[in-house]
Amino acid sequence: MATTALTPAAAGYRSGLYEWVTTTDHKKIGILYITNSFIFFFLAGLLALGVRAELAQPGLQFVHDENTYNQLFTMHGTAMIFLFIIPMLAGFGNYVVPLQIGAPDMAFPRINALSFWLLPLGGILMFSGFLTGGAAAAGWTSYSPLAQDRPLGMQGAGEDLWIVGLLLIGTASILGAINFLVTIFKMRAPGMTMFRMPILVWTILVTSVLVLMATPVFTSALIMLFIDRNYGGHFFDPATGGNAILWQNVFWFYSHPAVYVMVLPAMGIVSEVLPVFSRKPLFGYKAFVFATAAIGALGFSVWAHHMFTTGSVFLPFFSLMTFLIAVPTGVKFFNWIATMWRGQLTFSTPLLFALGFLTMFLIGGINGAFSASVPVDFALHDTYWVVAHLHYVLFGGSVFGVFAGFYYWFPKMTGRMLSEGLGKAQFVLMMIGFNLTFFPMHILGLSGMPRRIADYASTAGWNDLNLAASIGGFLIAASMLPFLANVFVSLRGGRIAGDDPWEANTLEWATSSPPPPYNFDHLPEIRSERPLFDLRHRRTLPAAVLPDPGPAPMPTVSATPAPRSRTRRTKP
Amino acid sequence: MTSDSRALAATREHSPVAGMAHDTRGGISNPILGMILFITSEVMFFAGLFAAYFNVRANAAHWPPTQPEGLAEHFNLHAEPFFALGLTIILIISSATCQLGVSAIRRNDRTGFVRAISITLILGIVFLIGQVYDYMTLGFGLGDGVFGTTFYTLTGFHGAHVFGGVIMLSVILYRGMAGQFSARHHDAVEATSIYWHFVDVVWIGLFSTLYIL
Amino acid sequence: MSSYRRTRPSTGAIVVGAVLLVLLALIAFAAVRGTNLGKAANDIMGSMFPPAAVTEQGRQIRGLYDVVFLIAAVIFLLVEGLIIWSVVRYRRKPGDNVLPAQTHGNNVAEITWTLIPTIIVAFLFYISWQTLNSVDAVSTKPDIHVRAVAGQFQWSFVYLGDDGQTEQYTQFVPIGNDGGLVLPVGRNVQLSLESPDVIHAFYVPQFLFKRDVVPGQVNKFDFTIDQNDAGQTFRGQCAELCGIGHRAMVFEVHAMSQQDYDAWLKQKIESAKPTARPSGSGVPPAASLNLVAQGIQFKSQTLEAPANKPFEIKFDNQDAGITHDVAIQDPKGTLVVNGDDVKGPGQATYSIQPLQPGDYKFICTFHSNMTGVLTVK
Predict the structure, then answer these.
(1) Alpha helix (H) residue ranges in C204-330
(2) Do the beta carbons of residue C210 and residue A448 sit within 8 Å?
(3) For a surface tag, which of A129, A178, A444, A463 has the fewest beta carbons within 10 Å of its beta carbon?
(4) Cis (ω within 30 of 0) for the bond into A411?
(5) Residues 431 through 490 of chain A touching chain C, CB cutoff 8 Å
(6) CA-to-CA distance for C227 and C372, rounded, in angstroms?
């Protein structure tokens, strides 16, 4: 016990700014990812508050003109997707994956640092559009020909900055994916076979394949749009011989798999949290892995379900594929429920957020069946119903998953516990605010309110629901206050976490909190997907080589790193 | 912790954590795997551009297009594919010499390696010069209809990749002359050669699509 | 590690209780205010469905929606119920020190919950496909053929003849009693959607239908408005972000009986005739006016023309890739001239029949904010 009482073993975490800027340690880069993502989360959240403030009542009263309004929702969507959810989950992957597979670092630490630093650069470029007379305003989908450099289109630098920013972020994603894949394929500890990897690692693996195959297509799309706008190209503008639908095809070929890039790792996080707080293994590990792979594979054949109303899509095929995705997703749901079934649930904050994921993502998932049904999609497409659906998937799913992961791994990252009280306050506020914001949008959409309108007729009957949604939006913002307070208070004076505060299953809890550079001094034997559980319950090492663990069994591997592992190697 | 030291020592011996940043347990090495994955993403990048090309071509009434006025004859690349064919042959030969260089360093033949990679590098530069010459004499530009846009985007991005390959070849040539490679240690050479073959294959695809199909 | 103190197992129950309490309080508040709870429940249920469909195709989509909704609701209640049951039933209680059974899986259960969803989605796909084939069918001989043109940021509707080519009458004003898309009930209407600029979408909530208006291609769809909806007006709106004027791209559909529609169209064609025809009378124009469109603006906002004499407008559209035209509204707001579309850059000369003295308004029918005053004296 005494070993774990030692406060943070890694002195490196205390060193200055220079260390953070030049680090190639996957853990620090992971923390940089997470911090950077939260900064853009708050920025994009402010933009969303602008949107909700404008829509709270009919009339143009908050932003005064549609151009500003269009910039608000365009940058909100873009930043939330590309600068918050995707890099946030990549950040968790960065921090956790090498630890969970018992590796000392990522395969390419310097490329890892590069793929992080491209993100703030891309983000700043994109947001600098606001300083150049208007950021991009064609929606995060940036449909051409609206996105072309033409009168009543996107004249000015904002759209070009958006393109260049996304090119950088896309490059970061691709490099990150290569890094994850090589790390997972090549750097697993002895005994860590593919089917003993934690589910989070599996989801990151599948996600990385999606990123690797889909993002370059988006890159090519962005480059073509850039050529159209700046060098007189003719790809996407029918007025000059191009094809407007072509943009949608290349865009969604990436952006639909991107939905799984945003949801699969969140599912992975939930699959880490649920077993730990149920005191049971994940039900149907292999089924879960196959379901993840199936979602990834099917994810490449459903992009055109965003284009059902364009009149140039082979509808039955994409409809069928979209429906089929419900099957592996359903399998996962039942596996999660079976994991909790007859377990012993401890309602710590990570579990609460994981349950938030289950209950809310379920709504977003079931909604997907409506959109998959082409005729029903004819009615719902491009209305607020779709806004509700995508937020139930990306907020109810990904964001709840992100917070589950944050509360779960914060003790590992910092060595200190977050406050349970503040965490629960945040959860309750967020849950109420989220549903108050996005549930009414289903009804608005069904009654015919289109997306992306700055104003609506006061006679349309949409006033009350819009007001409710706006109040909910500000409640979500309010839920960030206990969260921030929690983080800052805990960083300064939170309870010391110890190596394994949750009695968890996976390898990251076998080292100190925070882990030393290069992560492990010793690894426990890996005989299943739960090496720590095996160790705790004395299933792995024969008793002869273990000292008597005493009444409270704990990992025999010490959290105190051996001196040599502290020495920083200059050339990894 | 004395009784378990034997077990832990055994673990440490095979463990990647004992100061080993790169795990080289059998199979493909990390940089080579990384390069192959990178090339996968590059394949998808060119797939996006090719998809755009075929989409535009499928939607066109005539191919090569008859618009804009006066450029139709320049668009008819099928009539005179010989210059491009020459460039294709140059690239194919360079792929072969590149592979000769790889075999040489696998045999620890540094002189042969330097010779083969030098020829590859020169052929790559000749290709680039040839492409610039081709651009100057084609008679149409990037803005001249969908044909000009797709042609220059596809060949231009390929050219940029050749340029990247030339830089990589220069680096391994420099390092080879400095004696940094051996039969056991030449991941950079293997990675560069895979990349160079990929660039070659893309060009063969481009040549078939733009000049023959 | 045993030093870690677990939160009290009742916390989950407290949260659930709090949520229930809030719900109860809301219901009680509504009851105290005298809200009819039964009606409110009905309204809430009703808000989960699209509006009542007014077309044959819309009713089929609504039927499909109801089936999908029913299945979705059952699945939702089942799964959400299982989650809540697990949370309530299997919370860790004091004294739960023995590990629960470490179940790693169950092949029978897992195959079951793979197969059953597969069957459900296969069924959903099948009925969707059936409905799709029906609502997406496009007739080669529609009763009524209208071309809807969506430009930034205005709708116009061109009534086509039986051949589907000849333009009989163009409705430029998308809303109001004298404007809008006027259609007969009970007839098979085909809309051809065309855009001169960016992507728009034709959307009428009561049709339960929308279709994108994509530049460079013509999208067609058929629908039949129900017989008993004659005299109704349905509000429609552009549903695809098309720029700063997106929210203002509204239109109305007026459903009429067959007789009313025939009379309306006949009258419209008659009134448009004298001005729609180009001047071929041989009388030389008394004046020639120059009008330039640039940057979605007319360069001159005022024009002057002689009264009661034919004149011509030389129109120069300098906006590359953008279509403009010139139309003239008389002081009462009736469209008296509608010039041909000119895709920029391009020129056209419009021959205008003699006009009565007065202040006319000239507009670009694609861009409702492009206007000017034509003084005829």
Answers:
(1) 258-276
(2) no
(3) A463
(4) no
(5) 432, 442-443, 446-448, 450-456, 460
(6) 42
CA A435 to CA A423: how far, in whole Å? 18
**Single-letter residue type at A539:** R
| A279 CB within 8 Å of a chain B CB | no
C-beta atoms of A215 and B146 within 8 A: no
Q: Are A388 and A446 in contact (CB under 8 A)?
A: no
Q: What is the pTM of this model?
A: 0.86
In degrees, rounded to 5, the angle at the alpha carbon of residue C60 between the alpha carbons of residues C55 and C62 is 90
| Closest alpha carbon within chain A to B23 | A187
Q: What share of chain C is helix, strand, coil (3-state, %, to 5)?
A: 35, 30, 35
Long-range contacts, stretch A288-293, CB < 8 angstroms, 24+ apart: A288/A199, A288/A202, A288/A331, A288/A332, A288/A335, A289/A195, A289/A199, A289/A202, A290/A328, A291/A328, A291/A329, A291/A331, A291/A332, A291/A335, A292/A199, A292/A202, A292/A203, A292/A206, A292/A264, A292/A267, A292/A268, A292/A328, A292/A332, A293/A206
* CA-closest candidate to residue B21, choices A33, A567, A14, A528: A567
The letter for the amino acid at C230 is A
Residue type, position A181, single letter: L
Give the chain A residue whose CA is nearest to the CA of B24: A186
Cα–Cα distance, B119 to C167 (Å, whole number): 69
Residue with tokens 């010039």: C339
Rg (CA), chain C: 30
Q: How far apart are CA A129 and CA A47, in angstroms?
A: 14
Residue A48 sits at φ, ψ, to 5 deg, of -65, -35
Enter the tokens of residue C108: 């029978």
What amino acid is encoded at A139 in this protein? G
Residue C60: name the closest of A27, C68, C186 by CA. Answer: C68
At C223 the three-state DSSP class reads strand
Q: Do B38 and A518 touch (CB under 8 A)?
A: no
- Whether residue A566 is predicted with pLDDT greater than 70 in this model: the reply is no
Determine the 3-state secondary structure of C170 from DSSP: strand
What are the strands of the beta sheet with C335-338, ordered from one edge? C302-305, C367-376, C358-364, C327-329, C335-338
Per-residue pLDDT tens digits of chain C, which is 377 residues long: 444 444 444 556 676 777 788 888 888 887 777 777 788 788 888 889 999 999 999 999 999 999 999 999 999 999 999 999 999 999 888 888 888 989 999 999 999 999 999 999 999 999 999 999 999 999 888 999 999 999 988 899 999 988 888 888 988 888 888 889 999 999 999 999 999 999 999 999 999 999 999 999 999 999 999 999 999 999 999 999 999 989 989 999 999 999 999 999 999 888 876 554 444 455 677 788 888 888 778 888 888 888 888 888 888 888 776 778 888 887 766 777 777 788 778 888 888 878 888 888 888 877 767 888 888 88
Task: Pick the closest to residue A139 from A40, A83, A228, A73 (CA basis).
Answer: A73
Q: Which of residues 162-221 of A touch B (CB under 8 A)?
A: 174, 177-179, 181-182, 185-187, 189-190, 212-221
The CA R_g of chain B, rounded to the nearest whole Å, is 23
- Write out pLDDT tens, residues A268-304: 999 999 999 999 999 999 999 999 999 999 999 999 9
Distances (CA, A) of C339 to A166, A408, B77, C293: 43, 68, 42, 14
Interface of A with C in 72-91 (CB under 8 A): none
Report which DSSP code applies to C337.
E
Instruction: Classify B99 as helix, strand or coil.
Output: helix
Instruction: With beta carbons less than 8 A apart as the criterion, state whether C207 and C226 touch.
Output: no
Please tell me if residue A233 touches chain C, with a CB cutoff of 8 Å.
no
First to last CA, chain C: 96
